[in-house]
Amino acid sequence: MKFFEFVLKFLRRRNSLGYRAETAAAKFLKKEKKFKILQRNYRHKHLETDIICFDKFSNSIVFVEVKCRPYYAKVRGYYSATSKKKTENLRKCAKEFLRENRAFNQNFRFSVVEVIHNEKGEFTDISLYETR
Fold this sequence. Notes:
Elements: H1 2-15, H2 17-31, E1 36-44, E2 47-55, E3 60-70, H3 78-81, H4 84-100, E4 107-117, E5 123-130
Parallel strand pairs: 3-4
Antiparallel strand pairs: 1-2, 2-3, 4-5
């Protein structure tokens, strides 16, 4: 019974709006920005980073938070997407990823991909907000 519950949970997750937004964001980063996707949904303890990718043009690892918002959302952009607590958790998660992969001297940065959807759940816009 537990295995069956796991499979159902997995299938529900794959069809969720958030999962589809993360998939669309990964495709956007790969196709439009020419980033190499290193890992999705990286976890360390209770912390998670949605997408970790490599930007060959800046020779940097990019830790990406994906935010899915309806088209009528009043708040948009990088600063509305990340609270102080979320930013601190992203930093901790990034530090652990770099430690695990022995990438101590590697350049890195944090970015947010915002995926906008309409009332049908179709994605209408994807934007990248980068930090330097």
